[in-house]
Amino acid sequence: MNIHEYQAKELLAKFGVAVPKGIAAMTVEEAVAAAKQLPGPLYVVKSQIHAGGRGKGKFKELGPDAKGGVRLAKTIEEVEAHAKDMLGNTLVTIQTGEHGKQVNRLYITDGADIKQEFYLALLVDRGSSRIAVVASTEGGMDIETVAHDTPEKIHTIIIDPATGLQPHHGRSVAAALGLSGDLAKQASKVLAGLYAAFLGTDAEQIEINPLAVCEGKDGDELLVLDAKVAFDGNAMFRHKDLAELRDLTEEDPAEVEASEYDLAYIKLDGNIGCMVNGAGLAMATMDIIKLNGEFPANFLDVGGGASKEKVTAAFKIILKDPAVKGILVNIFGGIMKCDIIADGIVAAAKEVNLSVPLVVRLEGTNVQEGKDILANSGLPIVAANDLGDAAKKIVAEVRAA
């Protein structure tokens, strides 16, 4: 689960991480009021969407010469003008795709006198089953570009969960960023706060870009100028407060609906809908569709013990996508029984007046009962013997339609 930048900063501040003053705003009036509460004279007006590259992005409605989704303002009047430009308009960035995302929230922050920018992130390193700290002196840039062009500028530090964060980890981060003296101590403090936040919230990723050396009243200070935090969705039952931060307007409506039925659904750009039980089998199904010359329209895992109602809901979600020209159902009945899947398929197909080709491959528990249900349904369902046969048949059906 992702949250907005302003939510991430408010969260990190609770763990002792230094962030600039900032206030979220949902309207132009709130943006102006927020700016008046900040010391100024420099303000930053930041679009809040779940995507990176906001500063370099462009608004569809404002033309190619308009400024991006992160803007500086030297007066309250400029804050108001930027807010009017951003709110309600569609910001297109390198991460949103050409469709972009509508800006419904802003974050008005105090300006900072930046001397140097760094990149710092905590991630789950699945290879080592540990938390990895990634640090680079190339802050403010896309980390993918840095990794491609100058990989030697990226430093990775692995933290063993058995011992946890140790003082030498903080010193290693400071050394990787080229910091010494008081700034090195601040780097250790920032890392300690981020590590505590990572563990305390069951985070999957905390990305700070940039972490900046800024001029303060009492000398240079390290401030988190931008933050991206993502949580393990499977752990949200332990964090009801964090679950309430979820912004459903940032998510695909079909994916939101799927989550209500505990379905794992991700919309893709193809034309063949997939309904499968098991993530590995779903990936294999998508691959074999591509191998046969077409593209999957979604990833959908109904799970190992889905009910008839859950299968019906999954079927409806697939068919809501206008790009879907055919559906491939691939079920291996272990915990899941093939007759339950068949009942769900027939019920959903009748309820939505199925108008696209449907190929079904069933195998496993109660497979014959499931096949009998489909055969006697009176629906034009094409049966398949195995996965390879199913992929060939759905591709042929879609191309013939």
Please characterize this protein's 3D structure.
With 401 residues, this protein is α+β, with helices and mostly antiparallel strands. The protein has three domains: 21-110, ATP-grasp fold, A domain (Dna Ligase, domain 1); 114-242, ATP-grasp fold, B domain (D-amino Acid Aminotransferase, Chain A, domain 1), CATH 3.30.470.20; 252-400, 3-Layer(aba) Sandwich (Rossmann fold). Helix content is 36%, strand content 26%. The chain contains 13 helices and 19 strands. Strands 8, 9, 10, 11, 12 and 13 form a six-stranded antiparallel β-sheet that branches. It has a four-stranded antiparallel β-sheet with strand order 1-7-2-4, covered by helices on one side. The protein has a four-stranded parallel β-sheet with strand order 15-17-18-19, sandwiched between helices. Helix 10 (308-319) crosses helix 11 (338-351). The mean pLDDT is 91. It comes from Sphingopyxis fribergensis. Heterotetramer of two alpha and two beta subunits. Pfam families: ATP-grasp_2 (PF08442), Ligase_CoA (PF00549).
